[in-house]
Every structure is written in C-alpha cells, then in structure tokens.
Amino acid sequence: MGEGDFKLELENATLRKLLEVAATDAARRDSAEKLQRLILEELHHRVKNTLAIVQSITNQSVRTAIDLPHAGEAISARLGALGRVHDLLLRTSWGGAMLPELLRAAIEPFETPGLEQFRIQPTPIRINPAAALPLVMTINELCTNASKHGALTVPNGRVTIATKVNERDGTFQFKWSEKGGPLVGEPSRRSFGMFLIEKGFAEQFSGSTRMQFKPSGVVCEIDVPLAAIEEQIAD
Q1: Contacts by 156-162, CB closer than 8 A, 24 or more apart
Q2: What is the value of pTM for the model shown?
Q3: Terminus-to-terminus CA distance in the chain, angstroms?
Q4: More confident site: 149 or 158
Q5: In this structure, what are the phi and psi dihedrals at residue 147, rounded to the nearest 5 degrees?
Q6: According to the CATH classification, is domain 96-229 in 3.30.565.10?
Q7: Residue ranges per structural domain of the chain
Q8: Sorting pLDDT into bands at 50, 70 and 90, what band is 2?
Q9: Lower CB density within 10 Å: C or N end of the chain?
C-alpha cells in the first residue's frame, strides 16, 4: 500500500468514526428528548390530579363547614396532610412509601410532646402512591375528629392504630381505637371529614369501613384488598 493509499484509508476510518459518534450523539439526543417528554407528561398528569384533589377538598370543606373560620381550618389541615404525603413520595421518586413512615407523617401534627397519646402497631409493607394519599387523608380526619371531640382533647386520652395483613383472605386491615376521652355519641350530621373516613380510602380500593361510636371512644376498622394498595418491592 502506497503512502497516498494509506492516508486515504486513514481519512476514511476517521470519517467513519466521526459518523458513528454523530449517530450516537443523535440517538442520545433523541432518547433524551423522548425521556423529557415522558417526564413532562407525567408531571402534567400529577399536577392535574393534585389540583383536582385541592379543588375537591376546598369545595367540600366550604360546603360542609359551620362557618368560614371552620372551613379555613379544615382546608389548611387537609392540604397539610396532602403535602406530607407528597414529601414522602418524593423521597422514593413516587415509588410508594413504607406504612410506618406514612402513619408517623399522618399523626405528627397531632402529637403533644411528652404525652405519648399514640400507640402505633405498623405492618412493614410498602403502600403504592395511589393508596398513600387517601390513607393519610383518612388518618388525618380521624386525628382531627379526635382532637376536637375525642381522645385527643384530654391529656389522658389514647389512640391505638393497629394494622395487619390477613394472609388467608389477602386483605390489609386497619383499626383505629380511642380510649380515655370524653363520652362519645353518634354524630347528628355527617361532615365531609366523616365522608372521607367512611368512603374515601375503603371505597376507592373496593374495601369496607366500620365506624363505631362507643361511649369509651371511636373505633374505625377498614379492610381493603392487599393487592390493591401494596407496592411490590423489586428484588
């Protein structure tokens, strides 16, 4: 091979290499653009869902409130619960959240330092993002009700949150029990908060809720199919 042929072959090899690099860069840019579109579409979807939830919370809170200050207080508490769930899910890139963390996030604003009014018996399962929000909103409503009318109105009041998985029938079981508070009676009206407790979480996942207004305290039991709310953890 002559010197001219060698130079030509070298130039061709260099050109092929440059073309390969250009093709790779173009493919990467195309993949990056597709990923960006997917992220924006997912963000748009989640923002729309969140705004719909906020709108529903606001409308229902105002509609069922006794007065505007009461409505403002209810909206603030519910949006706070919404924010705490989003914080938890953000840490896992919306891959769900462990149940113990969700329970602690839900009760945190209602804990009084030094009183230890909550006793939690969590099951170490991961709750999927779709179920995390309504579960925490339900607990937020139970806490709000207890802080206004039930066990959390007095220092000696106690709340037990027990959860377990029934392997036999594949259900997740949640039980809220109040003790040590004032005497409890059946409410004369069903507020939006009570609607969220009785309907929000359980009905969304084809479950059931049983509310008991015992003189000793409110008891709320919720059963839902485990497969509907559990986030599977990859090996």
Answers
A1: 156/180, 157/117, 157/181, 157/217, 158/117, 158/118, 158/119, 159/107, 159/117, 159/118, 159/119, 160/118, 160/119, 160/120, 160/121, 161/103, 161/107, 161/118, 161/119, 161/120, 161/121, 161/122, 162/121
A2: 0.70
A3: 57
A4: 158
A5: -80, -15
A6: yes
A7: 96-229
A8: low
A9: C
